[in-house]
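Below is a filled-in request sheet from our internal design queue. Each sheet records the structural input a requester submitted and the sequence that came back. We keep these sheets so that new team members can see what a complete request looks like end to end.

REQUESTER: design group, bay 2
PRIORITY: normal
MODE: inverse folding
CHAIN LENGTH: 124
BACKBONE (tokenized):
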């Protein structure tokens, strides 16, 4: 079974996205960011197939998480989809250079998150 971790400081956003993914038969872990080392340790324990990550989190900015993941040998190939209420084309280009596979606007659309994540998980 495919496994997804949702990293977001908003419990509502995590719960909503998790419900949409579970409805598609995807195993989901919700993670509230406390610090960058805590997030990386949790990802190593979970070893998800895909990470949904919010960009704007005060305790642990999403961009810092993505950069750190790409530096870690055991996590660098993790598929990543960004959730954000703000879409900046320069930022999207920066995220693409970091190997982010998708960008979903907030508020989260259950159909969009389910479709994109399912599609990415089915890719080899």
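RETURNED SEQUENCE:
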């Amino acid at each position: 079974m495919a496994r997804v971790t949702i990293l977001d400081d908003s419990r509502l956003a995590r719960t909503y996205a998790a419900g949409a993914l579970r409805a598609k038969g995807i195993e989901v872990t919700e993670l509230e960011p406390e610090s960058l080392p805590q997030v990386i340790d949790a990802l190593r324990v979970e070893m998800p197939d895909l990470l949904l990550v919010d960009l704007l989190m005060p305790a642990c900015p999403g961009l810092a998480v993505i950069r750190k993941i790409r530096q870690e040998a055991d996590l660098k190939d993790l598929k990543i989809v960004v959730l954000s209420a703000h879409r900046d084309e320069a930022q999207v280009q920066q995220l693409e250079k970091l190997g982010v596979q998708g960008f979903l606007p907030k508020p989260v659309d259950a159909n969009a998150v389910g479709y994109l994540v399912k599609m990415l998980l089915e890719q080899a």
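SHEET NOTES:
- The CA atoms of residues 20 and 111 lie 7 Å apart.
- The domain at 3-122 is CATH 3.40.50.2300 (Rossmann fold).
FILED BY: M.R.
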